[in-house]
User: Fold this.
Amino acid sequence: MLPVTMIVPVVKDIIKDRLLGSNWEVAYFTSVPMLGSFLFSPIAGIISDKFQNRKYFIALFCFIDAFLFYLLTIVTDMKSFLIIRFFEGAAHIFIIGLLLSAAADRENDPINNRYYGKGVLMGITGMFLSLGGAFGLPLGILGRNNPLLPFYVGSGILVFIGLSTLVLLKDRGIHKESKFKLSDLKFAILENPFLFVPFMFNFIDRFTVGFIISSFSLHLRETLTFHPGVVGVFLGLVLFPMSLLSYPSAVISRKTGILPLVLCGSLLYGIFLGLSGTTNSYWVLFTFLLICGIGAGVMFVPSMMLASKMSKPGLTATTMSAFTGIGSLGFMLGPIVSVQMQTIFETNLPKDYSFGALSFFFGCLEIILVLITIPFFKTILKKLNHIDTERDKITLANQSPVL
Assistant:
């Protein structure tokens, strides 16, 4: 997460100053890689499940992503820049989606008593994903004098991750399917339509993040006149609590269940995201974003665990890649919708109220999704219990007798 977040504070410098783009190009810069992620995420999961391998695909696409990051520092025209950015997003989803799948493989494997059903690995994974984002944003200060420097550093980090993967990562707990069919994914969704619940939460979560790193980031730079380092710190207020609360929320979910944390965290996140655009006060904004981050931390890992637990045995990577892919779609649309809605609000509302209305628009999406999900609460819990029972039966049937 470090490479993709440390470039956020210098987006204005790269797009608007270096390449002479507009707010729309800033939105495209954020959205285009998410389009690549959305289109290639099912391919990542399907290929990985078919070949029963995570390790070599993760390493390969780390090296490809590193090369694409370096290319972004060379091109000087907007069209080529956005094309490369598209393929960078496609490469990155292989890395993130399959790393999540590797963690889910072990956590959903009943043979592995150390991790099975405990939420430990998903908690740790979520913690480091958000921690990487939280540290990456303040590292945008590297670009204060040279906005290309975060791209160079990001490229080097990806090479390091690729080498580490080859040395350290081992594929374990992958459910083996003798014949993999794409129709199996369609059947899994038809069999369990509640898969759409974690998918929709991830879509809206990432949709709102698209607003945060585009229109909200520009609001901090241009309206509040924060420099890149301060912008990184303020945006990091959302991600630091996520990293600190990821593991505790996974542990707490053993007692409370997964879904209550998803609902409560999303509600808190939505309320304070809406409020964050209504103030220009340094410390009030600091507080709102911090509480917003606490809400995100409460629901972030449980939403991943919900998708993981609802996946059909043998389709873990496909499900988790679809989960990250639908999030990428939200991330892709968020900045574009954000810029469009900002134009509408600025045209029809007084200047002092337009950005507050924009933030409330995005915050209310989270709140509405929570309200829609509540009536299905008990039905979703029953489905989770049924899937856990089915997974246990399949694993026990495939175990060899102990000699």
